[in-house]
Structures are given as C-alpha cells and as structure tokens.
Amino acid sequence: MARNLQGTGGAARVTDSVTTTTTKPKREPLSQERIAKTSLELIDQIGLDEFSTRRLGAALGCEAMAIYNHFPSKDALLDAVVDRLFREVVVPPKGPGWQARVRGFAASYRALAHAHPKAFPLLATRRFRTRARNLVEQIMSALLEEGLPPKSAAELFRVLSNYCNGAILDELSGAFPPAERDEYPNIQRVQQFLAPEHYDAMFDRGVSLLIAGFEK
C-alpha cells in the first residue's frame, strides 16, 4: 500500500492507494495420463461418435493440437483409453479353482462394461492393439497354473472373451424390441425372457454353460 500527498487549496491531505496484483491459477500440465483420463470421462458423457480432439482440447483447456505432443494420433489416444479401462478388470487369485476364477473375471469384465457403457465398444475392437496384453498374460497365467494344458487355456480364453464381448454388447444395445403376436408369434412367446430384468441370469447361465462344456 502506498501513501500519497494531494494538495487542495494549499492544504495537504494524505490518501491511501492500494496496489493489487492478480495471479492466474496454475494450469495443470498436460500428460498422457491426464489426457487419457479426461478422454474416458468425455466419452462416458458424450459417446464415441461425438468424441473428438477438438472437444477434448476444450475439456482440457488447451488447443487440440497440443494433444498431439503426447499422442501421435487419435488412434494412439484411444488405445491409451483402452489401457486405462483394462486396469479396472480383475483376475481372481488362485484358490477356489479355475471355474470360480472364470466366473470372477467374467463378472468383473461385465461390471466394467456397465460402468463405462459408451466406452466399452473400444474394448471389444481394440484390445489386442494395446498394452492390455498384460491382462491377457494374467488370464493365461491363471488358467495354466490351474492345470489346463496350453491348448485348452487358449481355447477357453477365446470362447470366454468372445462370449463376454458378444453378450455384453447385446445388453448395451438396448432391450429387444417388442413383437406383434401375429407377425412374429415365436418371438412373442419368449419376449418376456429377453427383457433387461433377465440379463443378469442369462449372462450367468451362459458362463455356466461355457464352464460345463470345458469340464467335460
């Protein structure tokens, strides 16, 4: 604070003047981790079709081109989002047998899909392009240490992943549209069991059938 003397008709008076400085809040620096995290949050909000680096830049408070200092392409960015998603999938530890571990993994994978329904299609289409191979390594390790031969472990992994991706994508696509009795009488007969309230039981039933097939 500075004090000034001002003259008024020969008399002097003292006034105070306050000097203030404003500091801008420090912007969080860009990093691959922050960009991938914000990308997933944005996809969760608006979906993959609406997602763009321009909208991502707005969410990050930067120009879209700044993102490419950390990722060489949008494809590489989406791969990073997949890697981030796969961190949420759990492969149960050894103990209750391979059947229980398969059920636990399937449940964890489905829970991830329902937590991020708009981003889940990335997992079904890009999983082998990313560092998510670490998760595949964990699954193979679990199956092999349970005593499955390599060929059986590979077959079980393929069947399980294909079933989970297909069943979950079907769930996320929405309820099966109702059918008129006269036009599609057989669909009408089973319509009630295609409703969302049966999704949990149907998914578990599919996993049980898969396990039973490999037990034989």
Backbone shape: flat
DSSP summary, beta strand count: 2
Question: What would the average pLDDT be, to the nearest integer?
Answer: 87
Distance between the termini: 86 Å
CATH class of the largest domain: Mainly Alpha
How much strand content do the residues show?
A: 5-15%
Helical content (DSSP H or I, runs of 4+): 55-70%
Oligomer: single chain
Largest sheet: 2 strands, antiparallel
* Residue runs with pLDDT of under 50 for 5 or more positions: none
Order of helices and strands: EEHHHHHHHHHH
CATH homologous superfamily label of the largest domain:
Tetracycline Repressor, domain 2
Integer tally of domains: 2
CATH architecture of the largest domain: Orthogonal Bundle
Count of separate DSSP helical elements: 10
And the CATH topology of the largest domain? Tetracycline Repressor, domain 2
Largest sheet strand order? 1-2
Structural class: mainly alpha
